Amino acid sequence: MANPVDYAIVADIGGTNARFSRVSLTTLELDKVAVYPCATFASLADALQHYQQQQQLTDLKHVAIAIACPVTGDEISMTNFHWHFSVSAMQRQLGLERLLVMNDFTAVAMCLPALGSNDKVQLGQGSAKQNQPMAVLGAGTGLGVAHLINVDGKFMPLPGEGGHVDWAAQTEQEWFIQQVLTKEYGHVSPERLLSGPGLEAIYRALALYRRLDVAPLSAGEIGSQALAGSSELATATVAQFFASLGSVAGDLALTLSTFGGVYVAGGIAPKLLPLMAASEFRSRFEAKGRFSAFNRQIATYIVTAPQPGLLGAAVYLKQSLAS
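Below the sequence we write its predicted structure tokens.
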């Protein structure tokens, strides 16, 4: 039987679902993956204990958790769910030797160097250069943003809340969307458009812009109708989503000169990938005025790995234990 220190538990906690897996700290292979609705459990500790008992992994004492909220100290409060906990208290409660908690996009950033050729799809030109800064953004329940740099052979994630900066309208249609969302939210950030609720907000705003009387749709319905080509409004919504995503991705590239590549993760882009290549994503990524030639050199990828958050948490834990 393998020594339990050879294995650990990793988790990726979003606003809707909690994902858990066992990981080999030698090969980074994930197994025993389980996904639970967060609403099933009163606390994250309860969810983790349930996973350990269900999978018979109570002997594993090293845990790394990626979670969808800022991680700036011992007290953790989720942005889009009610779980709140102390890292140190949870570690004592569960009898863990090590509990590493990180922002979810810290984990996604950490997975980037471990992605194989089958885990990503390149859109547009450009090439990724080794040991250069990388950026990742991903739309799902919210919009996650992070960077990754290489420091003396070790990867250092630079998490942030870039999804909550100001969103910049660039076309007449986008100015209209911005006015609609300003009345609804006050402050319009990229996350207000580049997320599941953002798709729904774009759909509502475009209906007003086109003076159409339509019933609201869920993000899933909008995506399905756009993929099927059964709704011009849904197709226009997804097109606007990808145009705005390209602009924000291009901003990240400029911010840290990410010649290691810009990566799009999250649940939405991979599902709508057939519509992304024909969208304005890459042209808007490059449309940076005097620095268009600069961004043209930088590669953009869609992350298609099934569990990037779990993989990144594993990479981070392995690096942490090694040091």
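The first strand starts at residue 7 and ends at 13.
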